[in-house]
Amino acid sequence: MVSNIGKGMMALRGRWLICLTAGGQLAVCLFLSGILIREGYNAGIGILSAVLCVALFLGAVFLVRGSSEIVAKEDWDSIFLCWRLQRHDFNNHLQIIYTMIQLGKSEKALEYINTIKRENEVFSTICRLENPRIISEVSDIILSARQEGISIFLDIPDDFNPEKISQSTIKSLREQVRALMAELKSVPGERDLNISYTEPDKVKISSNALEGRTIII
């Protein structure tokens, strides 16, 4: 996930660099075209070259703009927030484990560590999602669910292809999960949400606490 996110970040950072490079190429081409026209070369060739340069420049700008919008700033903010919260939780866990060890409660410390591992497996699982927008949405779901005391379980195969998940599917996932979480607030006992990406282009949401209700998007 780190490598894929890194590539995405480099793409975003390179937006203005690409525009600047394309703009420089355009300026040089227009300058050379002007020289050709002034020196008496075929004016039609110079004008045609200038028009093609402008078209290529505008095409590059719109292409970069369109590709950069695939990963909105809000998505990166959400991912970074999730990482910061994990770091904060990690520091708290270290303090608790250290206190248990100091008090000679080594078995309690081991139990606590195993509990942390189970709770944080979900963050390791989202690494397979690769697409920053999907990671952002799922991270928001995980954090919101934890605030409500709802356990989240993810089922993501190793051969998961994020390109098969459409933007409309991501939007529907957010809406359906919010609706289910609202229902789960009134459910006593253990509450859960299971999100599965096992089908090629679909997402399955289910909850044992809601009598096994399943929604396929």
Write a concise synopsis of the structure shown.
This protein has six helices and four strands; from the N terminus they run αααααβαβββ. With 217 residues, the chain is an alpha+beta fold. It folds into two domains: 67 residues; 144 residues.
Give your account of this protein's structure.
- The protein has 217 residues and is of the alpha+beta class.
- It has two domains: 2-68; 73-216.
- Helix content is 68%, strand content 8%.
- The chain has helices at 2-38, 43-68, 73-102, 106-125, 132-147, 167-184, and strands at 151-155, 192-196, 204-207, 213-216.
- Strands 1-2-3-4 form a four-stranded mixed sheet.
- Helix 1 runs antiparallel to helix 2 (43-68), helix 3 (73-102) packs antiparallel against helix 4 and helix 3 (73-102) packs across helix 5.
- The chain is extended.
- The model is unreliable at 1-14 (pLDDT under 50).
Derived structural class: alpha+beta
Q: Please tell me the total number of domains.
A: 2
Average pLDDT number:
73
Range of strand content: 5-15%
- How many β-strands, per DSSP? 4
What is the share of helical residues? 55-70%
**Spatial order of strands in the largest sheet:** 1-2-3-4
The number of helical elements comes to 6
Main sheet makeup: 4 strands, mixed
Envelope shape: extended
* Termini separation: 24 Å
- C-alpha Rg (nearest Å): 26 Å
Give the SSE string: HHHHHEHEEE
Q: Ranges with pLDDT <50 over ≥5 residues?
A: 1-14
SSE blueprint and pairings:
Elements: H1 2-38, H2 43-68, H3 73-102, H4 106-125, H5 132-147, E1 151-155, H6 167-184, E2 192-196, E3 204-207, E4 213-216
Helix pairs in contact: 1-2, 3-4, 3-5, 5-6
